[in-house]
Amino acid sequence: MRVIELLCSDETELHMISGHNITFEEAEEAIFVRSFVVRGREKGVYEYLGRTNEGRYLMVAVRSFGKGVARVITSREMTDAERRRYNAHIAH
Questions:
Q1: What is the mean pLDDT of the chain?
Q2: CB-hemisphere CA count at 13 Å for 88?
Q3: For residue 61, how many other CB atoms are within 10 A of its CB?
Q4: Measured on CA atoms in the order 8, 14, 15, 16, is the torsion positive or negative?
Q5: Eight-class DSSP state of 21
Q6: 65-87 confidence digits (pLDDT tens)
Q7: 38 versus 31: which is more confidently predicted?
Q8: What is the pLDDT of residue 90?
Q9: CA nearest 35: which of 44, 24, 46, 43?
Q10: Distance (Å, rounded) from C-alpha 9 to C-alpha 62?
Q11: Can you give the residue ranges of every domain in the chain?
Q12: N or C: lower Cβ tally within 10 Å for the chain?
């Protein structure tokens, strides 16, 4: 799924900054700069593995509304396994 427009509720943005120390701008960077997407566990949910301009490795979960529009569900630092998968994918 290709994201063209990324939305985020105030509640989600507060959760990301207070719970995971991640800003919405960092989540945007992780999706739009250097990322790849994997299908989430639910229909319409996708997980992006990406890096910010500062080099942080983030997982950003989004819900697709179709036509390139998605809303951030949450974001967090990648696990070690996700980081290995990301680096292996980006290297190719």
A1: 93
A2: 6
A3: 19
A4: positive
A5: -
A6: 999 999 999 999 999 999 999 99
A7: 31
A8: 85
A9: 46
A10: 12
A11: 5-91
A12: C
Calpha distance 91→15 (Å, rounded): 32
55 contacts: CB under 8 Å, gap ≥ 6: none
Q: CA–CA separation, 5 vs 53, rounded Å?
A: 19
Query: What pLDDT shows up at residue 50?
Result: 95
**Strands 57-66 and 45-51, bridge-based pairing:** antiparallel
Other CB atoms within 10 Å distance of the CB of residue 60: 30
| CATH number belonging to domain 5-91 | 3.10.450.530
Query: Which tokens sit at 55?
Result: 């080099």
- Is residue 26 within a helix (H) or strand (E), and if so which, with residue range? helix 24-32
Mean pLDDT for the stretch of residues 17-27: 96
Angstrom distance (rounded) from CA 17 to CA 50: 17
Pull the structure tokens for residue 78: 């990648």
